[in-house]
Amino acid sequence: MADRSAQGLKAALSVLHEEADALAQLFATFEAADGRLLVDRALDLLHGATGRVIVTGMGKSGHIARKIAATMASTGTPAQFVHPAEASHGDMGMITSADAVLALSNSGETAELNDLIAYSRRWRIPLIGITSRGKSTLGNAADVTLALPPTGEAGALGLAPTSSTTMMLALGDALALGLLERKGFSVEDFHQLHPGGKLGQRLLRVADLMHRGGEVPLIDKAAPMSQALIEMSSKTFGCVGAIDAQGALVGIVTDGDLRRHMGADLLGQAVEAVMTAKPLTVTATVLAAEAVRIMNERQITTLFVVDGDKPVGIIRLHDCLRAGVA
Questions:
Q1: What 3-state DSSP class applies to 193?
Q2: Rounded to an integer, what distance in angstroms lies between the CA atom of residue 210 and that of residue 56?
Q3: Which candidate, 68, 278, 247, places its Cα nearest to that of 173?
Q4: Do strands 53-57 and 79-81 pair parallel, antiparallel, or not at all (unpaired)?
Q5: How far apart, in Å, are the Cα atoms of 22 and each of 30, 92, 153, 261?
Q6: Which of 28, 84, 287, 294 is the most buried (most CB within 10 A)?
Q7: CA nearest 251: which of 221, 277, 219?
C-alpha cells in the first residue's frame, strides 16, 4: 500500500512537470516570429467580429471551450459556447455572419465539427482552429490555425487529454486577454460584468456605497452648536460637516469634539469654534477598499466624500463591511 501511495505521488508530480513543459513549448511555438504572426491574425479576426465569438469543441475540448467562452465574456468579448453536435440539429441558427468561430479539436478530425466547419465556410464566417494537427480537416479549413506543439499527453499511459487541454486552455486565455487589451477594457468595465462575489466587492467604489443628498449631515460653520446637535442627531452618522458660505467643506464636528468642548456655553458657541478643521475626505471614484484602509488607519468610522472642496456624500465603515469590502 505504501508503495502504491509513493507511486501515485510520483505520477501526480510527473504530470505537473510534463504539463509545465508543454506550456513552455507552447510559448516557444507562438513566441517565435511565425507563431506571433498567427496569434496576431487570430486576434484580428476575433476583434473584427461585430457579433460574438462562438467557441466550440467536443468532449474534453468542449469543456475547455466552455471555459474560454466564459473568460472572453467576462473580459469584454461577447462569446458563447455552441455544442457542435447540437449545432447540426438546429443550433447552427445561433451563429451569424457577424460572428467568429473558435473551434477546438486535438485531432482536428472531430466528426461532430464537420457541419459547423462547412457552415462557417459557406457563410464566410471567420474560423480559428486550435488543434494538435495543423494538416487536419480543421487545420486546413480554418482561416487561422493555431497548431499545438507535439508534446504528447501527460501520464504513464499518455492517453487521457491532459497536456493538450492544458495548452488549449492557456491559448484560450491568451486570446481572451489579448482581446481585452485591444478593446481597452478597464477595471470599471470589469466591475460592470462582475457585480457579485469577491471580485465585485473588491472593485466597489465609494460612489457605490456613499449616502447622498439630504442624508448628508451638513451645517454652516457660523451656525450655533445647538443647530449642529440637531443635525447630528437627525442624520445618525455621529458627526456633522461644517461648510462655508460657498458650500466648501471646511471642518467636521464629531462626538470627540463635543467631549473636548463640553461646558455650559457649548450650545451657544459657533460651529467653527468647536469643529476640527480640514477633515479627511475621499472622492467618489476611490475604491471602497481604499476608504476602509483610511478609516482603519485613522481609527474613524466615517469619511466625507467631496468633489473638489464641495461635500457630495458621506461613507461609513459599517456600509463598507456590510457590502463585503474589507
A1: helix
A2: 44
A3: 68
A4: parallel
A5: 13, 34, 9, 71
A6: 84
A7: 277
Distance CA 73, CA 80 (A): 8
Residue 152: per-residue pLDDT: 84
Q: How many residues in the chain?
A: 326
Alpha-carbon 108 to chain mean position:
32
Cell matching residue 98: 457577424
d(CA 86, CA 107): 20
Task: Based on DSSP, count helices (H) and strands (E) in the chain, helices before strands.
Answer: 15, 12
Its pTM stands at 0.68
Of the CA atoms within 13 Å of residue 25, those in its CB half-sphere come to 18
* Packed helices 2-31 and 163-183: angle between N→C axes, nearest 10 degrees: 40
**Interatomic CA distance for residues 160 and 106, integer angstroms:** 12
Asked whether the beta carbons of 146 and 170 are under 8 A apart, the reply is no
Query: In this predicted model, what pLDDT tens digit does every residue of 105-135 receive, in sequence order?
Result: 999 999 999 999 999 999 999 999 999 999 9
